[in-house]
Amino acid sequence: MSKKEQELKLLLTKETYDKLLAHAEAEAPVLRQTNYYFDMPDFHMGKNGVMLRVREENSRWIVCAKIKQKSESAAVSSIELEQEIPPDVFKAGRQDPEILVKLLPEEGQAAIRRLVNPSDLVIRGTLRNERRKLQLIEGYTCELDRTLLPENKEQYELEIEGMENEAACRHVIETLSSMGYSFSVNQKSKYQRLQEAMGRLNS
């Protein structure tokens, strides 16, 4: 499956996160995600805007290539190409990531192969995340995340999908501000923040 994402990423304080929990959809299950990121030891793919991830989400396994796009707004734009896989394929792919890359749509395979030999990739980090859907702003998909980073540090984030342009971003930001929520606009992916955290650990 291939899709283009344009989403606004907002970093939150723990206090704001706790307040937003009141808007969680009561009947929607909490998505418990474990993300395994494959890259070279120096994060060569990530530094060039390409990500290879396997996500385990409520017992489903999904391999994904994400390609960052240039954006003229506060939103983060990317092409996401993914394929659901059986758990045993992930186990085999840990030993030889070429197995995982071959399952991706052609565009995802090409983006990775332009940068690296897939068989040289290794798991460079793992993130655990809890995601809740919110009924917050009409017309937009809002997802509230609590992410566990290395050293047991937590980050809180609100992602709003469907940002068509800068005007949409301004509308959402102004709406949330008028509701009394505090946040900071963030254009770094979870994977970029993982890279930075691991860099601090290794320095």
From TrEMBL:
<dbReference type="InterPro" id="IPR033469">
    <property type="entry name" value="CYTH-like_dom_sf"/>
</dbReference>
<protein>
    <recommendedName>
        <fullName>CYTH domain-containing protein</fullName>
    </recommendedName>
</protein>
<dbReference type="InterPro" id="IPR023577">
    <property type="entry name" value="CYTH_domain"/>
</dbReference>
<dbReference type="Pfam" id="PF01928">
    <property type="entry name" value="CYTH"/>
</dbReference>
<feature type="domain" description="CYTH">
    <location>
        <begin position="3"/>
        <end position="197"/>
    </location>
</feature>
